[in-house]
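Hello K.,

You asked for the raw outputs rather than the summary table, so here they are, unedited. I folded two proteins back to back in the same session to keep the settings identical. This is the first:
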Amino acid sequence: MYETIKYEVSGGIGYITINRPKAMNALNGQVLDEIYAACTEIEKDDAVKAVILTGEGKAFVAGADIAQMNQLDAVGGRALMIKGHKVMNYIEAIEKPFIAAVNGFALGGGCELAMACDIRVASEKAKFGQPEVNLGILPGFGGTQRLPRLVGKGMAKYLIMTADMINAEEALRIGLVEKVASPEDLIPTCEKIAQTIMSKAPIAIGIAKSTINNGYDLDMRAASTLEIEAFTSAFASEDKTEGMTAFLEKREAEFKNK
């Protein structure tokens, strides 16, 4: 079904692997379409509780496909950026958690794809950067917006304006990633995180993700109102009844949608 990605489900985890190793997994229109299609499957499949997104070979995603972009005029470039934003926004909108397993180069569109995920775990060999200004352009898949929200405005300007490439430890220090693992432990570390999340109340996890995302840019009063409504929704769920009953009965909760 897919030509540029691999998608499989195992143990409740959906695995998306970008599979263009000869092109360093560069994002072109087809890759973006296929990631979006896989996300559509994920959203509809109740068997999938969490997602691990990674790249084949030595790159996570080394950037957008420059060979393709070089052939585009402003209208074509705009259409590609709109498609990229559609994919990144969809990953954020799906209530299931996405974990980026950054196995190597995450540059340009690759860094932007990782930032669209909920949690980022980097291999010790990973490299991050937004090198677009070297090409006479700027980040176009959300980098100018997500990067400052993760690392702060000043650091985002530094990384984007200098096109500096940083290693995994620096990415951890500035808050671009949440964990660093050895190359051999990268996927197991992501799987452990996914399994931990999957052991929790799925309704609460989904509502928490959407509440964090939707409230981040609101003023505190509006964000507090959003949280109250989200809490009310979770409080009315079967998961709440089971979770609190299990706690009082000193047993493990058996959530309906686990």
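The second followed immediately with the same parameters:
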Amino acid sequence: MQVNMIFGFLGSGKTTLVRHLLGARARERKLAVIVNEFGQVGIDGAILEGEAVDMIQLTSGCLCCTLKGPLLSAIEELRDKAGIEHVVIEASGVADPEEMIESFSAPEFRASVAIGPFVTVVDTAKFAVMREMLGEFYGSQVAHADIVLLNKTDLASPEQLEAVRAEVAELNPGARIVTTEHCDVDAGLVLDALSGWEPGPGEHGHHHHHDHPDFESEVLDAAGPVTRAALESFFAGLPPEVLRAKGFMVVDGAASLVQFTAGQLEITPATLDRVRQMVFIGRDLDRDGLAARFAFAGVAPEDGTR
């Protein structure tokens, strides 16, 4: 069985890539998916539902630290399930690749599982601001990749694209750099290759210093209907501490998937049977203030129920 890891900071396009891989190969081979959500609600897992694959969701933590044990147990469970050839892991946007690599270094694990290329998805237009904001943590996701997808190139200028390409090449000279829109990449590039990584002598059992920024999440009820204008006003007024938000709600009378990343709001159609909640991810969140503003926008109950 082969395991493929997908990294990338919040909102870069990881779930879009996983959906693309499933759509390209689901009929050719038996695939399974492990989705890691930093928050308590599995929004990305809900987006992937209906793809006719085995899926395991690991929420309320990060695969590189608190969920490292459950991750390996999930892989073993899928490995022992008849017929599964590939497991695609969508890591949390705040996962540290170095810690994840350490998880795969056990000799008994390596004997039964092949490791596909580590893929990091980058939001090209937001690369500069994210690198400045997150520093070494953000750079680590790029530096440990076999393949870097410069995604959302349709939202970046040619000058931005070339600048990001140069920075990525400097951070990781050995990576294969691929430009994409909506993560539309050749599935074989990811699924038919193996990672160039091999554990070094004595690496198994050695714990790397885990130093990603202190992120936190907040889940708010989004049961009430809202107008697009009110929603746009709410997100435009969010403090910079809120880096990412995603969830399902009714917007202008239509069931919608709402996603927000560093100032950019996206509203797309969704099915009606989703749990209407929003997950907010950031640092030093003003939870009470966030709940009050959300209720004022008309989405959440006025008592700020979470």
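Residues 63-67, 204-210, 302-306 have pLDDT under 50 and may be disordered.

Happy to rerun anything if the numbers look odd on your end.

Regards,
P.
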